[in-house]
Hints:
Number of strands: 13
Oligomer: single chain
Strand content: 5-15%
Order of helices and strands: HEHEHEHEEEEEHHHHHHEHEEHHEHEHH
Distance between the termini: 98 Å
Helix content: 40-55%
Mean pLDDT: 91
Radius of gyration: 27 Å
Amino acid sequence: xxxxxxxxxxxxxxxxxxxxxxxxxxxxxxxxxxxxxxxxxxxxxxxxxxxxxxxxxxxxxxxxxxxxxxxxxxxxxxxxxxxxxxxxxxxxxxxxxxxxxxxxxxxxxxxxxxxxxxxxxxxxxxxxxxxxxxxxxxxxxxxxxxxxxxxxxxxxxxxxxxxxxxxxxxxxxxxxxxxxxxxxxxxxxxxxxxxxxxxxxxxxxxxxxxxxxxxxxxxxxxxxxxxxxxxxxxxxxxxxxxxxxxxxxxxxxxxxxxxxxxxxxxxxxxxxxxxxxxxxxxxxxxxxxxxxxxxxxxxxxxxxxxxxxxxxxxxxxxxxxxxxxxxxxxxxxxxxxxxxxxxxxxxxxxxxxxxxxxxxxxxxxxxxxxxxxxxxxxxxxxxxxxxxxxxxxxxxxxxxxxxxxxxxxxxxxxxxxxxxxx
Length: 422
């Protein structure tokens, strides 16, 4: 082989080797897109809605990936506290308004766990707002509002031949008739914890807060107490309902998941709770089953009935992500009408801000909106409590009442001690 031919052979061999190496270990493409990952801490109840929002966000911002982790309410609160303390919590946190729960916006802002949003959202968050602002600064993005009332299926109720009570005197015969048909009138998933609060929130909205909206302020001023207020009566009303056979058997052993399944299958007629249960019910119930909402009576005067209703679902920015560009992009997206429309459409909620062309997603939501339009609502009271310990005392107290180890007065007194920080 002459030198010329040898050179050609070597050159060809080198080229072949280079191409082979490239095919096995390709070089990064010029200008390849760098993807930034952020993580989200979410409520399992809202998984379909949150997943849909994330999908839309990633379509708009292809260089940002959002990875969610979902928790049930009670377990999630404990996990979030642990993660925030350890510095391992996700950049985006689904939270609650106010300071009445450990994942409350005001509570976390006060403890330096979340970052200020620093956006001029006066049309979305009122300047005098006290559940999403801390010291006047916005810390939470409101997504949806909700309400407490009797959730039921008109189709299932029609088969029973009954109608939800509109007066307190109608509750006892309603429960008796339902029990006679072998179907408890009210689901009671006390084992899960947070559902225990729904009855007292519904009853005190009418018995107390509709006429004394400043009651919480009076408490902190030392002018009022739970133990000397209609809160005691609300607990007594729960005891009455229990003695009338209104609830399913063994409330303290019944979970929210069990209640959801029973309600969807018509094994219990209704539940005094939130419409956020609707997506889960729809996934289990027979096709064509719809879900409605009825205000829970506390007196015999229908016009006096109020319902608890206010912002429920909000998002916050972890303090460690204060200067995270991708996380702030997602927060800005959450504040958009597009994100709110997606969220409320799949979560069983009401928009917490403007959504052009919004139409109620169920008869339940339409009924709640009518109460809100008539201004016959009062905010979820825990949002005014300055410590999560008050709600914790309420939950433990109701469970103890149903276990026969505490009394209405005793529960109220323990709530007073929690409010006073004792």
